[in-house]
Amino acid sequence: MGFTELANARLETIGFRSTAPRRAVLRAIEAAGAPFTVEDLLASLPDVGRATVFRTIKLLHELDLLCRVPLEDGSVRYQLSEGGHHHHLVCRGCGRFTEFTDLELDARIQEQARAHDFILEGHAVELYGLCRECRGQGA
Amino acid sequence: MGFTELANARLETIGFRSTAPRRAVLRAIEAAGAPFTVEDLLASLPDVGRATVFRTIKLLHELDLLCRVPLEDGSVRYQLSEGGHHHHLVCRGCGRFTEFTDLELDARIQEQARAHDFILEGHAVELYGLCRECRGQGA
DNA sequence: ATGGATGCAAAGACTTTGCAGGTCG
DNA sequence: CGACCTGCAAAGTCTTTGCATCCAT
Hints:
The structure is a homodimer.
Chain A: H1 3-14, H2 20-31, H3 38-44, H4 50-62, E1 66-70, E2 76-80, E3 87-91, E4 97-100, H5 103-115, E5 119-130, H6 132-135
Parallel strand pairs in A: 3-5
Antiparallel strand pairs in A: 1-2, 3-4
Helix pairs in contact in A: 1-2
The structure holds a DNA duplex.
């Protein structure tokens, strides 16, 4: 079951309607191989209104079906979420992300919170650099 | 030596001019006890033009005198930078940040990069939760 | 049928830019 | 004095909202 069907089913379960524009957005997101900007989506969906694209992205993000990745310059990309908690390696060359999980890293973070008498409710870790493909190409 | 003098000296050294509006922005930043938004600064500096405030913030950020912290909702705060590399504990209650450094955490991050054949050039870690003051107040 | 969803365009929030005039060094 | 800086307002971005219409259930 692809993302489109899965997300669609999930939406219906919660009481949202399955509409043509909504499914079009889901398909476009699934088709996007790399992280995308809202602008990318808008461009690939000329027949869907801006508002609908924004509203759908917001919805999916709230449902954790889409993850939002802040870049260093302050811009934001979205990417299909694999679901669980994870972190990102963001390539400055090609802009792609790789997700990874690291329990030890998370444990260390938890410990820092404890050390500061801080109730940890969430955290974000982003690594920036060059991926294997881009490192050689001077990208 | 306070931030204002330090930053001012630093600016002059690099060839920027010490002007009244610039110093006013520096003073306002130093006076801000907590992280601030650009809007906060603008409000506290009614006699300095918007453009100048934005331009000065940008300048200070580029010089690493100011650090930019992305909140979960996508908004951005600034805070006087203590200089070196560090991470943040961001309180969802009062909005204040605490900076911390953790070599072990950084090492773990470096290792993840290595494991993914990724040239690490930078990273960001943000912890979200409740600080000690806010945890009891249901804030 | 009926309330949620859509699309358009307008309004908003936030930031940058062009330019005439002022100021630091 | 000359280059840099400032302030204003206008122009950009990017995102949200109001509202009449449409459509899934």
